[in-house]
Every structure is written in structure tokens, then in C-alpha cells.
Amino acid sequence: MTTLPDVDELRDNHIIEDIKKVFYASGIDNAALFTLKEYKDGGGIYDGRSMRSIGGFAALLKAAVPEAFRSHRAYTRHLKQHNTYVDKLEDSELKYKYLRDATLEATQAALALIGPAIAQRSFKQPKARPGPLKRMNVALVSDTHFGLDIDPYEAMGNEYNWKISAARFAQYIEQVASFKIEHRKDCEGVALLLGGDLGQGVVHWKTDSGTQLLAHQLVGISSYMIQAVEYLRQHFKKVDIYFTTDNHMRATYRHNERSTGQKWDSYSTPIATALEARFMDCPEVGVHFSKAPINTFHLLGHKYGLTHGDTHVSAGNVGKSINIESISKQLLKLNAAQTDGYYDVFCMGHVHTPLRIAVASTNTEVIVNGTMSGTDAYAATEGFFRTLSCQTLWECTDKHSVGDWRIVHLNDAPIDQKMITPYAGDLHLHKK
């Protein structure tokens, strides 16, 4: 005998199927968000009264789509966090609007009470100088190491030879000539400070295959310096050359290590003599050479000292660290020995790292020059893998011993320049 299905059971199953159909048609992926209202709005055919008698809508929904309740707990937590964030954001927005409106109201009330502001000058107009400022360009040339061939494979890509050195030197001299050109009418001239190691010398000739013959170095360096001065005298009223001896060009037959006495007995001295001979009949060019290891002179009333930096006064290895105390003590001792006033400026080279410091305890500005040759094989072995090719330049005025100071970078110097003719290895100084 066939048993007929229970009428209530059929009705319950039909309600569940209808809820399931409407839920999936609604596009809601979380059953926790599907309410009786969504069911009715989605076309559900049963009302809440008919469902309450068989457990209610929530129970029927769980029976219809149990798989849709799997993320209910995580979603509820996320919804709670979202609502908390929104509440805080709305609270912050209300506080901001209140603060803004209150500040605006208070500011308007204060301005109304104070009245319109009247601008007043609180400083005195400076007095005009009784005449034009005296100026002078100062060019510090050192550590050019002309006569050195650097193999780029041994020096981290840096290449150097007579042609490249001519290009770098020409770019620097061009910067010297154009520096502060807008004040040229007030410029007294240019001071060319030749601070030593202009050539490679022969101190490393046994170990360095890049060292040129000494005779070639002397002729090549003299040629480069003469061409540079010829160019500068076309741009300045006066060119004053100050010269000091050095380390690399020392006469190794008597100064095998450091030059401790008669430092002027050096291979670099003939370079100064060549300049003096070339410009002997040019009153606008002066060559100032001193036997003293420190060449002392005055520029626009300021006392200058020039030495190479390998003896007497040393800046230390400023490429690794700057020992201000050591420099200060040396300058204090040096200044104490002076009979005509302290040094205002003290210039050095030797360490291949440009530096300018004002030593407070001595009131002396210290300027250390860079190198034109850059990293060579020896420097690379000491850990200096990328020494920039550069020289320094500044303006001296009657008011400031060192004014605007510039580091002139030279690695990108154009090879096809026309100012300095690259030395070709002959033994004659040719006219341009």
C-alpha cells in the first residue's frame, strides 16, 4: 500500500526551496546578510507568519543554504571593525569642522578688535659702500701629475695621459676665466697658486710604468702652464703666479724620502724659471717664487700661505678622516712664529681631496685642493677606487679673504678643446 506524503512536510520543503531560489537569485554571497525583507523583495511567495509556525525565517534559511553561513563569524568581525572605523572617522570629521569653525570665528573676532595691520620696517637701511668692492679670482692648481699615464684597467676605469690632462686643464682654466665675470670691472686680476705635484716626477719610476721621462715632463708642464697664462692674461688685468715645491717632483738624488732641507732644489723649480723667462717682458704677469717651503704673500690685504702639504704643515689623510685638532695645533704654532700677523688663508694639496674649513681657534681658513689625474694604480691599492678629477677656485675681496668657493669637476672635459695643445713628446716650446 502506497503511503501519501504528509501535507505539512510538503509545505515545509516548498518553503525551503523557495527561500533557496530567491537567495541565490539575489546575488548576496553571505546568508547572514539575507533577511526576510530581501526574501520578500526578491519575489518570495511566503510571509513571515506562515514561517513562524515551522521555526521562523532564520531557521528555514539555515536549512535552505547552510553552505552560505561558513564565513559568517569572520564577516561579522570584519563588519564590526568597519563600523568602528567609520564611527571614528565621522567623529574626527565632526571635531575638525568644529575646530575649524571655532578658529575662524575667533580669528575674525580678533582681527575686528585689532583693526587693519600696518607694515613697518624693523631694520635700518644699509649704507652704501664708499666705492666698488675690490675683487680677485684665486685659482689653486696642484696635483695635476702631468707626465703620468694611467691605464684604466688598473685604475677602476680612470684614464690619464697628455691628451686627457690637456683637456682637463683647459676646462679648469676656462672656469677660472669665466668665474665672476659679471664683476670683472671690479676685479684686480687673478692669482694662480701653483701648489706642487704639477708633474709625476720620478719618485715611482721603478714601479710605475706610466711615468714619462723627466725631460718630457719638464717641457710638457712648462708648455701647458705657458699656454694657460697666455689665455688668462687675455681675460684679466693682471696674472700673479705663486709657486711652491712639492713631493713628486723632488730631486731624488738627494731627497730620496721627504725633502727636509733646501726643498727648492727640485725638478719643479725650472718650471717656475720657464714661466719667468717667458713673461719677463709682460708687466701684467708676475712670477713669485720663494725658497721658503711656505710661500707667503698678500692678496687684497689678506695674508696667504701656500705649501704642498707633504712637509711643515699637513692636513692629514682627509680622504678618510678630518683631524681638526691636529690642523688647529699646527696652525697655532705656525701663526705664533709669525712676525707680521697671522695667516688669513692657508692653501695645500697633496692629499687629492678638496676641502675648505674655517679653523675657529686660529681664525685661519684652510683650503686643500683635489687632484687632476684622479685615481691611479697606487691609489687603487690603497682603497681609493674613485677619486674625482677636480681643482678648486674662489673669489677673494678686500672684505673676505675667501668668498665664493667652487670645486671644478673635470672628469667630463671635452677632448677636442683648442686652448691647450696636448704635448707630443718633443723638446721645444712652440708659439701658439
Spell out the blueprint of helices and strands:
Elements lengths: L6 H20 L9 H6 L6 H5 L4 H8 L7 H43 L20 E7 L20 H17 L8 E8 L19 H19 L6 E5 L25 H10 L6 E5 L5 E5 L2 E5 L17 H13 L8 E4 L6 E5 L4 E5 L8 H5 L8 E8 L7 E5 L23
Parallel strand pairs: 1-2, 2-3, 3-4, 6-7, 7-9
Antiparallel strand pairs: 1-10, 5-6, 8-9, 10-11
Overview of the molecule:
This protein has 432 residues and is an alpha/beta fold. It is built from 10 helices and 11 strands. It has helices at residues 7-26, 36-41, 48-52, 57-64, 72-114, 162-178, 214-232, 269-278, 324-336, 377-381; strands at 135-141, 187-194, 239-243, 285-289, 295-299, 302-306, 345-348, 355-359, 364-368, 390-397, 405-409. The protein has a 6-stranded mixed beta sheet with strand order 4-3-2-1-10-11. A 5-stranded mixed beta sheet has the order 5-6-7-9-8, covered by helices on one side. Helix 9 (324-336) links the parallel strand 6 and strand 7 (345-348). The protein is elongated and about 125 Å long. The N and C termini lie far apart (132 Å).
Portion in helices? 25-40%
Average pLDDT: 86
Give the tally of β-strands.
Answer: 11
Distance between the termini: 132 Å
Oligomeric grouping of the chains: single chain
Low-confidence stretches: 1-5
Gross morphology is: elongated
What gyration radius follows from the Cα positions, in whole Å? 42 Å
Question: Helix count, per DSSP?
Answer: 10
